[in-house]
Amino acid sequence: MSAHTAQTELKLVGKLLLEGELHCDTGLHVGAGKGSLEIGGADNPVVKDAFGRPYIPGSTLRGRLRSLLEQAGGLAVPSELVYLTRRKGQDVRIHQSDRPGDEIGILFGRNPGRMERVVGDPMDGSAATPSRLTVYDAPLELESITPQMRENLDDELTEVKSENAIDRITSQANTRTLERVPAGARFRIRLIIDILCEEDKALVAKVAEGLRLLEDDSLGGGGSRGSGRVHFAQLRLRWRGRGYYAAGAAEAELLSGADVARLQTLANSPDFAAQLSE
């Protein structure tokens, strides 16, 4: 549990850079919205960059990690949730609290101001804190889509999966299509964890926990129907203390070619915090 207090002084101790690969074990669908539907295209296209290449938005990966950690910590319950946005039929609920030791709030940041709780009186947020975790857009590694894979794809880089929704009264099938990045594709991930006080060093283990939870869950749409199973590989963790930025000191490589289990073991080791010096 975090030892943060309301009086914790924040200043840059350093930054941890976590980079590696996200492997698609099944097809991956991160939706672009139906506004991009083209004639003859899938009902649910994937998000693509300006060059037509699929990618994983940093907000998608970051949001999924937060959601899984909130669920694991028992925070996805009405008494712990506020409305982030309220639109007709599209309420978005998210965990937020003013507790100094709330690791989710510290890791992902807390906004000030009045917020409507899902249950209970409105919350007047006063404990605004900066986010410690930054997650960048993850580009597709084009070489992971092999010539053999391309032969079986509807597009050069994606596949279209057909699904049937069955009417419970008439038994009529309603066919829908889902565009996916195929199994076997890889994306390059990059996360940065800002260490702003000594207590922040414990948050690295929380990030590793989120990544491990995701490996046994799903990313993107259609997870309950087989899409979105992923795992992480070739993880590299580097430390850049304050001296790296102020005086050109060398960075320290803490982990290379690792999986999430090794990252988690490192982050929970007794001497891990001592390796993160200014």
Notable features of this structure?
278 residues, alpha+beta, five-stranded antiparallel β-sheet, two-stranded antiparallel sheet, 6 helices, 13 strands, 19% helix
Description:
The chain is an alpha+beta fold. It has one domain. Helix content is 19%, strand content 28%. It has a five-stranded antiparallel sheet with strand order 7-11-1-12-13. A two-stranded antiparallel ribbon has the order 2-8. A two-stranded antiparallel sheet has the order 3-4. α4 packs antiparallel against α6. The chain is globular and about 60 Å long. The two termini are 23 Å apart. About 3% of the residues have low confidence.
Describe this structure in a few short sentences:
The chain has 278 residues and is α+β, with helices and mostly antiparallel strands. It contains 6 helices and 13 strands. The protein has a 5-stranded antiparallel sheet with strand order 7-11-1-12-13.
